[in-house]
Design a protein that fits this description.
There is one protein chain. The chain is an all-beta fold. It is 0% helix and 57% strand. The strands form 2 sheets. Strands 2, 4, 5, 6, 9, 10 and 11 form a 7-stranded mixed beta sheet that branches. The protein has a 4-stranded antiparallel beta sheet with strand order 1-3-8-7, with no helix packed on it. It is globular and about 40 Å long. The mean pLDDT is 93.
Amino acid sequence: VQLQAFGGGLVQAGGSLRLSCAASGRTFSSLVMGWFRQAPDKEREFVASFIGTGGTTTYADSVKGRFTISRDNAKNTVYLQMNSPKPEDTAVYYCSARSVLASGYNYWGQGTLVTVSS
């Protein structure tokens, strides 16, 4: 599976930004898609995930109510809508994928940098 994330940039706190991730190489609808992020000098952390078959979404507490993960199986694309971002959301965001039965994410895209200004 090849993943390509894009859409990062500079956004003001309280604004909005949408990240996209295009997938290729495997049946997209069968994959669990996720977003992770890594801030400077911090460990990579989970942001959100979307299980394609059942439409189940999961969010980190820090973004719940502000970020929304969605997917378009016809376009093989997953999105992360970031509303009301905060400066602490500044990070490199990574798109990831795994099969439903896998224990961890084993496909990763290149990161896209999101900078939230105060």
